[in-house]
Specification:
InterPro entries: Galactosyl_T_C, Glyco_trans_2-like, Glycosyltransf_2, Nucleotide-diphossugar_trans. GO terms for molecular function: transferase activity. It comes from Thermodesulfobacterium geofontis. Keywords: Membrane, Transferase, Transmembrane, Transmembrane helix. The protein has about 300 residues and is α/β, with parallel strands linked by helices. It has one domain: Spore Coat Polysaccharide Biosynthesis Protein SpsA, Chain A, CATH 3.90.550.10. About 35% of the residues lie in helices and about 20% in strands. It is built from 10 helices and 12 strands. Strands 1, 2, 3, 4, 5, 6, 7, 8, 9 and 10 form a 10-stranded mixed sheet that branches. A hairpin with a 2-residue loop joins strand 6 and strand 7. Helix 6 packs parallel to helix 7, helix 7 crosses helix 8 and helix 7 packs across helix 9.
């Protein structure tokens, strides 16, 4: 039997996009030994309950009792995947991502089996406004891939733990995770042999609240990870790369719609993070081995009841 794979999908009021995501995985995936784990922190999501009242055996839904960070929900999915499903690989999939070909999981697993040095692998990720990742090569090594779709080796999780839940509610937890993976000795790569579609729209209007959240989490990311030689990452506060596997050259940049708000919120974001500076500095000193899961990856009694 082939190695077990768990697909962890985190959702908050995902609606029809979540249903399309899950349906695309269950309908198209040829790989046999897998299970989809949906972690939804909106327990009143009646659409999800009705749609999957007769849920397939390959689907597990975990409803959280309150709104948690995306990292917290992913970590719960990790714990379930390892402890209950004994998964060797975990695929993180955003709730607004659709699978496009039936061999997507086969292709990702095959590359992970052939390249033992890879800790994280991502496919080509298309979006309505460009590519989050793109390559024509079978394997191309990069510094970072977005968590919209990535496969992670279990041994990586056992070595460094999960995502940092203090990136609340979301934002910058995936580049932070990638940095810790690299520091632990594994490589990060993208592959051109399979692709998915991310239905996000980075040009959508962003509220004042989310402008502050993105700025706050970005400052935390910088304080945790900034090293000499990668100061260019500062520019990601106001602009993002069309292709994450490419550099910060002008033709590869898209200014975020709320860049001016982020600059305005920068002093407040600095203050919020400085209040937690002792904890941040402690994490910074030990980036490659700090566990945001239990050291033995055990599920607490409270979480067992939820699961």
């Amino acid at each position: 039997m082939r190695n077990k794979v768990c697909v962890v999908i985190v959702s908050h009021k995902g609606g029809n996009l979540l249903l399309e995501c899950v349906s695309s995985v269950l309908r198209l995936t040829k790989y046999q030994n897998y299970r989809v784990i949906v972690v939804d922190d909106y327990p009143n999501d009646e659409n999800l309950k009705v749609a999957y009242r007769r849920k397939p055996k390959k689907l597990k839904i975990i409803f959280l009792e309150r709104h948690e960070s995306a990292s917290y929900a992913r970590n719960l999915g990790i714990e379930y995947s390892i402890l209950r499903e004994n998964a060797k690989y975990i695929i993180f999939l955003d709730s607004d991502v659709k699978v496009l070909d039936s061999n997507w999981m086969n292709n990702l697993v095959k590359i992970m089996e052939n390249y033992k040095e890879i800790g994280i692998l991502a496919p080509i990720i298309y979006t309505p406004v460009g590519n989050q990742t793109f390559t024509k090569r079978r394997v191309q090594f990069v510094d970072y891939v977005p968590s919209a779709c990535m496969i992670v080796r279990r041994s990586v999780i056992e070595k460094i733990g999960g995502f940092d839940p203090d990136f609340w509610p979301l934002g910058n937890e995936d580049p932070d995770f990638c940095n810790r993976v690299k520091l632990s000795g594994y490589k990060i790569a993208i592959t051109g042999v399979t692709k998915v579609f991310h239905q996000t729209n980075i040009k959508r209007r962003i509220s004042t609240y989310w402008s502050f959240i993105h700025t706050k989490n970005y400052v935390r990311y910088i304080l945790l990870n900034l090293r000499k030689g990668n100061f260019y990452e500062i520019f990601s506060l106001i602009a993002i790369r069309r292709n994450f596997s490419d550099s910060f050259r002008p033709s590869n940049l898209i200014f975020v719609p709320d860049w001016y708000r982020r600059l305005v919120f920068l002093p407040l974001a600095l203050l919020v993070n400085l209040l937690n500076i002792r904890k941040i500095l402690k994490l910074r000193r030990n980036r490659s081995s700090f566990h945001f899961l239990n050291p033995m990856i055990k599920i607490s009694d409270e979480r067992k009841r939820k699961i």
